[in-house]
Amino acid sequence: MDPEPPFHETYKPLFANTKIEHRSLVTVEEGELPLVDLSRLRQKEAEKEKCKEEIGRAAHEWGFLQVMNHGISMELLEQLREEQVRLFKQPFQNKSLSFSAGSYRWGTPTATSLGQLSWSEAFHIPMTDISSSSMEAFATKVSSLAKQLAEILAEKLGQNWSYFQSSCLPSTCYLRLNRYPPCSIPYDVYGLMPHTDSDFLTILHQDEVGGLQLVKDGKWISVKPNPQALIINIGDLFQAWSNDFYTSVEHCVVTHPTQERFSVAYFLCPSNETVIESCSKPSVYTKFSFREYREKVQEDVQRYGYKVGLPRFLV
């Protein structure tokens, strides 16, 4: 049975009725993210502090960085990828049965134009719903890394990281296994449409195919893939909490005409009741709960086809 989601059939009206759309930011350059060697955190105090400074500077200037010597072995990453491929290669009709209801997603149900369509499928898995040994081992390690990085970023602002420790629990964080099928349609179709992440931190491992792009200094940068590194990016909640010191940057995934692409992401999220309030004054944003933020995002996506995000909560 066919494992592919029915993209062509479902979105045929968009291909027939939508004119070719072009991004508002058209310049795309290939670049490498700031690369930080986390083994330096285990060295003498001076080197440890330099490493922390680099992490904080990248989060401030780029909103993105990549890390090596992160404590997750290539063997484990390869085992996870094999598990991921098996899940996506099963018949399409079976995928929704793999995890809890609503975990499997594909395409963009609310899309009214090609620019709002994401040519991808994903398993969006709560940490408490993970069963396979490779996924569980990865989740345990990446969760620890996320909290270590949150602690460093809070420390750079002179703040205590206990806020993240108490609000971000296994029951509130999740993994997302992504697959981007080949897309030979001659339009500007995204694998994942431009967006910012609605969390504190995202940790991503991607394969060698590439496709991740982000905005830097008014230009789209195509991130050169490094399968041995993990990519870290700041989410909206960390930007709000840091009072705009750290930056949640718009990013997207572009499609490839002949190759499929796989990635896995971990999202450091709080409970719905957690209140997000700027750690310094005067505050750029009004304080809001994560539930309020998610509800506003859902409303905007339904109404406009895209997320507005933090500007909704400006003072």
From TrEMBL:
The keyword Iron applies. It comes from Hibiscus sabdariffa (roselle). This is Fe2OG dioxygenase domain-containing protein. InterPro entries: DIOX_N (IPR026992), IPNS-like_FE2OG_OXY (IPR044861), IPNS-like_sf (IPR027443), Iron_ascorbate_oxido_reductase (IPR050231), Oxoglu/Fe-dep_dioxygenase_dom (IPR005123). Residues 171-270 form the Fe2OG dioxygenase domain. It comes from the Eukaryota. PROSITE patterns: FE2OG_OXY. Belongs to the iron/ascorbate-dependent oxidoreductase family. Pfam families: 2OG-FeII_Oxy, DIOX_N. Keywords: Iron, Metal-binding, Oxidoreductase.
